[in-house]
Predict the 3D structure of the following.
Amino acid sequence: MKKIFLYCMLFANFVFLTGCVSLNKDYPDVKSYSIRILREKNNVVPSKRITLKINAFDIAEQFATKNLVYKKEKLNFNADYYNRFTSYPEIMLADQMREWFSKAPFIKEVILPEDSRTANYSINAYISEIYGDFSKQEKLKAVISIKLTVLDVQNDAVVLSKLYREEINLKKMTVSELIEGYQSAFRKVLGVFESDINKFTHI
């Protein structure tokens, strides 16, 4: 009986120690990051304002991941499992565009894709690139490339279809620097895109 008890105690200690060893991680924690584009609301209201429906964004397959993607060599892209976006980039950038235009003075309302109401214009987007270019140590860059298409809903006509591509130079190869680069790049895209929309809406 004593031997059985002793064997049970040894087995229990083994299970406990094995469990303790498994708690000692030899890999880094997973960290999450968001792209946020800040814009102050303009209180000047023009005489003509439009409604805008921003549809769900599409994205190239190799960037359709929450993991941050780096370009280490000319044609070699790697995903970073331990540093990732809080949501998929196509969802995050679409949300940021909606927030941006909701504060634009010439926009009366931004309509969500699931809303059945008709807008004056609808926007479709395809993200072809979003990555950190670390292929050259002396030329670190955050890259975003996105094709934006604007449809005049009433006339069922494409009034704008353009590829917007921005590269932001980075001072160092860190994730926080890359995220800031993404934010600067997409802010530039939004600024130029808004100017282009203004041209054909005659605001």
Notes: Residues 175-201 form the longest helix (27 residues).
